[in-house]
Amino acid sequence: MKTRKSLALATATVALGSGLALAAPAAQAAEAPARTTAATAPQGDADARAWHRLWGPHDISQAELINGNGKWTSNRYRTPTSTTRAVLRCWNTREKMRVRIWDVADQRWVGSSGWTYCNPNRSMIAEARVNVNHKLRVRVEGDQGARVTTYYRG
């Protein structure tokens, strides 16, 4: 019985001691000033590659699309970075829809999702690289209600 207690006490002492020994260098490293070199990325780099919502979600009714000959066009907007995307969600699986991005200055389509059947579990995405100074529009084409949101990578 005495041997078991002393063995348990010795094991606990070793575990505690090794835990403190491992924690000491980590505590010293946390206190050291951070150095930035060319080989290490800045901490904000992960956020810089993330998608940020620009506007939306905007719900488009079926009546709006039918009154517009199956088309809905957003107001003009600018994106703060060169990469932008429009994301369309629709739920009726028997309908085909698409979302496109129009560059107003160049008078051309810069991104399109293509005609795709709606899927309640997926989104249609039109992605484009554009000039930051150019104004853009999003166009949704189809015959059923949907929800559109725009994002930029920043």
Architecture overview:
By secondary structure, the chain is of the alpha+beta class. 26% of the residues lie in helices and 36% in strands. The strands form two sheets. Strands 2, 4, 5, 6 and 8 form a five-stranded antiparallel beta sheet that branches. It is globular and about 35 Å long. The N and C termini lie far apart (65 Å).
Biggest sheet: strands, sense, closure?
A: 5 strands, antiparallel
The strand count comes to 9
| Helix-strand category | alpha+beta
Kindly report how far apart the N and C termini lie.
65 Å
Q: How confident is the prediction overall: mean pLDDT?
A: 79
**Over all CA atoms, what is the radius of gyration?**
27 Å
Strand content: 35-45%
What is the tally of helical segments? 3
Portion in helices: 25-40%
Shape: globular
Poorly predicted spans: 20-43
Elements, N to C (H/E)? HHEHEEEEEEEE
